[in-house]
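The record is passed on directly below:
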Amino acid sequence: MRRIGAAIGCIGAVLTCTSCGPEPIAQEEFEEVCGQTGPFRILPLAPDRQVHNTWSWATRVGDRLLFVTYRIGPGGEKQLFPETSEPEVWSTGLCGESPVMVARGVDKIITLERWPEVVLGCDEETAEVVSVDPLGTREPHVVFASDPEAYGDCALRWTDYGMLSIAEHDEDFGALMLTPYPDDPLTQTSEPVVLLDNVRITSTGRGGVGIVANSIRTFPDFVLALDAEGTLMRVDLADRSVAPFVENVRGVETSRDGRWLLWQDATLTGGDAYNPEGDMFLRDLSTGTDALLARTSLEFSRFPLSMADAGIVQIGLGYVHRDPQRVFFLPELDFFDVPGDLDFNAKLDDGRLLGSSLFDAYYKLFDLRAGTSRQLFEREMRLQWVEDDGMVAYEAKPCCIEGGFRDQGPMWRVPFDGEPTQIAKRVTDYMSRLGDDRVLSPVDIGGDWLSDLIVIDLATGEERFVDGHVYATSVDTRWGEEDGLISYSIRDGERSGVYVARLPVQARSGSRKSIREHVGVDVVRGVDGLPVPVPRLQPGVPDWKALAAARARGAE
């Protein structure tokens, strides 16, 4: 029989009455974890230190759990995202045994498939990648040497043959470097070698498995990079051979699977000083065939190959607020012109496209061949995921012009053909989908980023209270998903620390398959009034670093 610990029950009763809104909700009934049927603190923390899941998530290696904690700034209602500093990596047993700080100044901890028992992290000051001992018996060991002035600090662009990075020469050019995998990451240090010198690092774009210095596209076994003369070079990582691939290139983009290559010819045909135009070509690398798509500037295209896996290419023909974009269907390349501010999110099996404007968040279904569109919901929404027969989104203004990441609203399941159904009273961008038809979400996030954590059954809309004073960006369901475990950190006086809890297992009731997890695009407005798109790393989690960079360029 499930029961709730007395201490947890008291805490839950107080918090339920004071911080969960006008209608108190029931306390979640936890499964046992670490001998207790409620949240179990495995790592005490000072109140001003919290787990903050951006680059790094909780990592389990054997019977040890590792968390990156940060010193947290004071916060504020207008703060777009938390202010963090002084990262520390802490390790504990699965029930808090032998807590130890194993590294200071290290974040972005990961494990690689080739070394599943080795925890790697980025040293902030040296830009080196170090191995961290989960037991804390040895100091962090440098596995991949680097230059503290390297472009982008710890690149962490992994390939089958090592880590890629850039040694910056100046603001326009640098050397493409490969740091091979050492035989023993616990005792050996690998030094970077130059693959290609004097490559361009200033053009913009998104594509490929990894991006180094914006203009370089990386894949498991090869790299594409522009040299100083405008030749797109291919570097085969197996033998490190370099060969010219396409000449006279101004800008380049690739699909994530490496099949499609898009580039703008360096010969200018018009435009202005900031966005010079030229011929835009698309190559199918599986066949070697090229096609001229348009004469335009690659800078007008936000994410032209982001939906290439769904057979869509999107080319901007001018400024987003006044000129159209051209949508091509692969592989035939028949095309249709649509408004320039239209952003597509998914392609349905029948060919219709789900999309919305960059300037609002009203979702529509578009049948480009028939020339028709239909709005799915009368209110602005933030898309969370797409299912086989509809989308799931919650009511909120788009981020980050009118709305912010702490916004919350009711969530709806919106069929592509049918009437919307409200499935949750309130969720936020920091929600996590569980293995059944439930979500875990921080709600009522304050200026200090503290929240109530609730679990919501999407089949019934029922909310159940998990814990209070939870740091909103700390919630993690990944490392313990198979065991029904979650973790989060709390800032609440003597209760402060990292907690684990086991949610009760529920039968899959109405769980629906996602045909395409939405990787969102948040938009900030630049000083020139044009939108600056910022990608998300995964559903519900913005790319903080890209967002900060956009804001640094003058975005509001």
Q: What stands out?
A: DSSP finds two helices and 45 strands in the chain. The helical segments are 6-19, 544-552. Residues 1-22, 507-556 have pLDDT under 50 and may be disordered.
